[in-house]
Amino acid sequence: MLINSKQIMEKEEVIVKMKKILVLLTLVVGLFGFSTGASAQLIDICNSCKGGTDLGNIACQGAQANCDNVVFNYQTRLGYDDGVPLYDYSSTRYRAIFNICNCETAGTSFVEGHRIGIRLTLLVNGVAGDGKGAYWADPNSANIQFGMYAKPEDTCAVGAYLSLGAINDAGQPRAFGPGAFYKADGITPKTPIADTFCTAVASANQAVTLVTNVDAGYKITSGDVLNKLSRWWIIIPNIRIDPTVLKNGETISVKIETLDQATGGICATCVATCECVIDVAKICPQGGSSTCFFPYFTSTTDATSDNPYWNGIAIVNNGKTAGTATLSVYQQDGKTGTFTTGTIAAGSMFVAALENIGFTGTGLGGKPVYIKVTSTFGNIDGFAMIANSGSGESMGYLCRKPVVVGQ
Questions:
Q1: What's the pTM?
Q2: Could you give all domains of the chain from N- to C-terminal order, each with its CATH number?
Q3: Which of 36, 108, 176, 345 makes an SS bond possible with 126, Cβ 3.0 to 4.6 Å?
Q4: CA–CA separation, 301 and 288 (whole Å)
């Protein structure tokens, strides 16, 4: 069959249109399909191992004794409330793997003889800045170690960190060399601190950015090039939170940037040759509302001949962390009172008849009330029970909860 020039032109127009659609789709995926970080990549630079993409949770501080989960480690799961700490890097599947071959500068920066530095910046909900509540925790962790591997299966193998991939030609762990901690501007020095867990972090200790010194950096060798070690497992150091700032489901991420130190000078500390963002934790995840509203009970006292109804309440902790609930009662005549439960374990509940609770305040009893409940845990639920002690008739209703945006 013969195809004339008009048909050829029509086919070319279709191909051009399809290419435009593909480009638009690629842009959409690049903008919306990756991490919460501000720098979206059209090509995936950072990833983790299979099974290591689940975002770990850091419990609400203050809901646990001694605020014991403030410091956490992405690799070992130390400090996470939904995993057993491993205390080593060898078997965990959570690894920040930097694919340098996907960087635009791969052919010019990652070559033999070039010294590569690193810059790690903490982000909260995708934003870098001072006072955000996430900070580096260990002042001795500025020399970032890393492993170099040729294949994904090598990078994610059990024991990979203890393998030759993490050892340099001198038999020592690979590292980018000495570095320093700064505020978000990368200029003002800060000193990480890992104690004073239950209080606000002082300004002097709000270390947000970690940068390899200009005269340091890992020097790429001929062996690295020959063996095509293009997948770099970068160790993320300990992170701490400020429990007075982070307590409502915030996401913590790390922006990873490589720096070409070969030319030296001030530019080595400010111009990244490649970058990506990897999410590392969610703080105090609120699986739902932390408040419940009960609009009506007949009273807070026991049934009488004049008011034969008794009232009961159930408060359910559907969250992942233990906590308490505070009941604020408001009587029809303006009298008020409160009561705070003991610790309600995750997946458990508080159940009581109102007359047995013992609200604070005076003048409560014999009149209708409504109750507001506020919990220190997320994902609260509740049920009210009103029953006639004489006839046995009863009714119940679920508490009302506000809509939680994003849940």
A1: 0.61
A2: 35-283 (no CATH), 291-398 (2.60.290.11)
A3: 36
A4: 31
